[in-house]
Amino acid sequence: MTKDSGCRACRAGTKLDFEFTMAFQPILDLADGSVWAYEALVRGPNGEPAYTILDRVTDETRYQFDQAARVKAIELAGTLFPRESATRLSINFMPNAVYEPNACIRASLEAARRIDFAHQRIMFEFTEQERFRDLDHVKGIVAAYRKQGFLTALDDFGAGFAGLSLLANFRPDLIKIDMDVLRGLDSDAGRYAIVSGVVAIASALDVTVLAEGVETAAELDALRGIGITLVQGYHFAKPLLEGLPPVAGFTPMAAARAA
């Protein structure tokens, strides 16, 4: 699909032939004990897994789905998030569905204005469902979103196509280290060294590191030792359909050190 055909699809307002909603999972800040953000995760209307929806997205409907998913996440956040909260909303998006960054962001901005949700609280995560077709185009998306005041994150870092080359090219605000890289971090010296190295590189580039998929207290302790402060995973909370789940197993870094 070309850029022009994508823009025509936007104007035509083509409807999707399936329904979906969002579940929310917290991203926690170990430094101050706060919920730093909630990630919006695609689900079926009755809580069906994301793949049951994503498998129905075609080349012809990718743009429409990407736009609808952003708006759905923002609208639900406007209903669920405390009104005076500064907690961020993290939204996954498909870079190959963005034809012209400033045009394709309009629906998101309009949704945020409509529900009085500050768009500076929104972070867009680059999903790794498919290889980026045009790196220069994606770099343009990152630049345009940053100019608009959004945060950007490179998801699944260390898995699939998300590696050092993308970090070097895009310089996002955050990288999310993939759970497969973190698994068993506490007992595997090699993984510990790799994650420590990633943190050092990110620090030199002024990029924040977020550890996703944390499942055990031992993994959390290892991440604290490396100096990672943003974490996400089942150890704290599973995603909740159209709701904000309670958080467990979470101690602020300062309190952990005092103990």
TrEMBL record:
PROSITE patterns linked to this entry: EAL
CDD domains: EAL
Residues in coiled coil: none
Pfam families according to UniProt: EAL
InterPro entries the record matches: Cyclic-di-GMP_PDE-like, EAL_dom, EAL_sf
Signal peptide (residue range): none
All residue ranges annotated as the EAL domain in the record: 3-253
SUPFAM superfamilies, A to Z: EAL domain-like (SSF141868)
Protein name (database record): Diguanylate phosphodiesterase
